[in-house]
Amino acid sequence: MNLNQLSHRSYIIDHVTIVDPKKNAAYAGYIVVMDGKIDAVEKGRAKESSLPVYNGGGLHLAPGFVDIHVHLREPGFEYKETVATGAAAAIAGGFTSVACMPNTSPAIDDRAVVEFILNQAKLAGLARVYPIAAATRGRKGEILSEYHELVEAGAVAVTDDGAPVPTAEMVRRVLEYAAPLGIPFIEHCEDMSASGEGVMHEGFYSTKLGLKGIPAFSEEACLARDLVVLKSVKGARFHAAHMSTRGSIELIRRAKEDGLPVTAETAPHYLCLEDKDLETYNTNLKINPPLRGHEDRLAMIEALKDGTMDCIASDHAPHAAHEKQVEFNAAPNGSVGLETMFPLVVTHLVRAGHMSLPQALALITHRPAECLGLPGGTLARGADADLVLFDPEEEWTVRAEDLHSRSKNSAFIGHRVFGSVKHTLVGGVNVTATRIGV
Amino acid sequence: MNHRKHLLGLEGMSAEEITRFLDTAESFKEVSERSVKKVPALRGTTVANLFFESSTRTRISFELAEKRLSADSVNFTTSGSSVSKGESLRDTAQNIEAMRVQMIVIRHSAAGAPHFLASLLNGSVINAGDGAHEHPTQGLLDMFTLRERWGSFAGKRVVIVGDLAHSRVARSNIHGLVTMGAEVVVCGPPTLIPLDIERLGVSVEVDLKQALEGADAVNVLRIQMERQQRGLFPSIDEYARRWGINRQALKNAHKECIIMHPGPMNRGIEIAQDVADGENSVILDQVTNGVAVRMAVLYLLSGGSALENEETTPQQTETRVREGKQVA
């Protein structure tokens, strides 16, 4: 039977290459799904069974991808993205779980907003959506949000992403208050005094282009401050968002050596784009933190290989065309990323020879899930059958008109990439077809 | 030679092309010296001057250049960002082009604004200064003025003094002068020297006396009071004492060291009165030459299409320009 017609809750998908990132293995095999949950993942071909058997046609099958840093823009900025359109982009990109950032309007600082987002996600019926709550009310850095209420409603972490928690004192209070709830504090590491009016990485290219620079130490100074505060708060968990510089890698490495409860993510654009790519003043490449220098990019790939960086998250940041089609200084920061992250990982980490496919997929499956303590990203027996089937060899060109996100501000328009998602299954249901028409 | 459509910057422009602009400007300078300062070279061509940032001399210089070439020109001036005005730069530019304007001169506070227009419009875009990025016609007129005195740039030491971080004039000068074979030294407070500027082919010298040692020309940048208010240097007084160009500072420079300033000047701060008005000052020549250089730029950017049906050598073109004949 054809996977497009997958309609059962219990079935076998046969004739696939199983990619199990957690076991660092890839082999020809099949998967048994019982009532929407993984029952068995086996080598070889499926035996005679009373269950319906779907032919995977030689595609690769892996745990559905997990993205712990996306901006779904709802409520407040529905013209950029909604939970439904963002979830459709997620499914198109092979993501079965996404965690969304609280810089909405209103911010996710109230349980009603958490419940609203979860309800919108349920109505869309696509990817699983995990709201991340604002660390402080209105993301103003002044008063703590109601973490107990927010977590009870379904929030999985706290952050003021888009901006840092402004003071060491407030970082301490956030960590203290979050600790007993077992949720991590995610920091957007940026010293706003150092960033100033900067719009790109400070270095030779900012000098040449006449654009105001954001020094690497803007990120590093904030990260260093937080790590020092973290040492004094027992039981707290800290996750560093969108790391971009060599100096940050060193700080994370030392913190881990010191045994601090630290995890860190980087984003695909820091692995395949650099400050020199801004020479055309392409506003889709205006991102915060900014695209860094050549050495930073190479160091970031190494940090993923040696485990200093725990995972990759897209920092999917939709903006409307009219907002991006302006002078570079005036454009908002961010690039959409859900639909390009997987092929970029295949192209720039696997095909470039830095790591194997299972190792690379670990960075976008169980590793990010573990950072936030989410289910998913696994082929373990009993887990929800959140799965992705893909062809790692298929080459394609990123085109704005093919993106499912409501916004098309991709930094990767025109890039040739390898790896194409064919089916995304959530709880055993093939939602790939459903997403069309969102 | 391929016909250039836009002039966005001097970065990456060949010595041959720079020379072509300068040579053409020489012919046009002669036009400006006549009693009837007009040639019909751009008759029928419409030029829009979009000044999103206040400017007096550059705007007037472009306007005069356009008039002396017999182009029809319109001016659009606004201060502040176009976004705050409610209409985007994109819409403004597309509206103006919809009126069949062939060339657009743009001054904007945002670096890259001319590149943005060039990517949207069919017409030619001329950068009249974009943020701290480039000011190519200023770079060309500075080089034109130096070449008038020197003949060639080889072995000449040019010192650019002041706020390098925020200066588009500095960047265009650096690109052009380095390409033409001059030695370029930049000098100013460390807080106003942008990162890795050496990679543009210049040397950095914080000490003014060292920088001016053996200098053949010094290009004095305007210091903006706003930078001091932002804490980038401690006081106007200290700036004037350490980096102001006066007779004392010029002691170790070449005797005939040329003094340049893109204007407007803060007399007594970045440049002393007697130096600004001294015999080696070419500051007013720069202004005169600015018109000729901008005529050359407008002419060459439009000229490719105007000349496409004719076998015309640059020499013939120059002759025609001299004779004031129509070249269309």
Question: How would you sum up this structure in a few lines?
Answer:
The complex is a heterodimer of chains A (438) and B (328). Chain A is an alpha/beta fold and 438 residues long. Chain A has helices spanning 83-92, 111-124, 147-153, 168-178, 192-195, 204-209, 216-231, 246-257, 269-272, 294-305, 321-324, 341-350, 357-362, 366-372, and strands spanning 11-20, 25-34, 37-43, 53-55, 60-63, 65-70, 95-100, 128-131, 133-134, 158-159, 185-187, 200-201, 213-214, 238-240, 262-266, 311-312, 387-397, 416-426, 429-430.
Question: How would you describe what is shown here?
Answer:
The complex is a heterodimer of chains A (438) and B (328). Chain A is of the alpha/beta class and 438 residues long. Chain A has helices spanning 83-92, 111-124, 147-153, 168-178, 192-195, 204-209, 216-231, 246-257, 269-272, 294-305, 321-324, 341-350, 357-362, 366-372, and strands spanning 11-20, 25-34, 37-43, 53-55, 60-63, 65-70, 95-100, 128-131, 133-134, 158-159, 185-187, 200-201, 213-214, 238-240, 262-266, 311-312, 387-397, 416-426, 429-430. In chain A, 28% of the residues lie in helices and 22% in strands. In chain A, strands 1, 2, 3, 4, 5, 17, 18 and 19 form an 8-stranded mixed β-sheet that branches. The two termini of chain A are 26 Å apart. Chain B has 328 residues and is an alpha/beta fold. Chain B contains 12 helices and 9 strands. Chain B has helices at residues 15-33, 57-68, 89-98, 113-120, 136-150, 168-179, 208-212, 225-229, 236-243, 273-276, 283-306, 314-323, and strands spanning 46-51, 72-77, 103-108, 124-130, 157-161, 183-187, 203-204, 217-220, 258-260. The longest helix of chain B is centred in the last third of the chain and has 24 residues, at 283-306. The two termini of chain B are 19 Å apart. At the A-B interface, helix 6 of A face helix 4 of B.
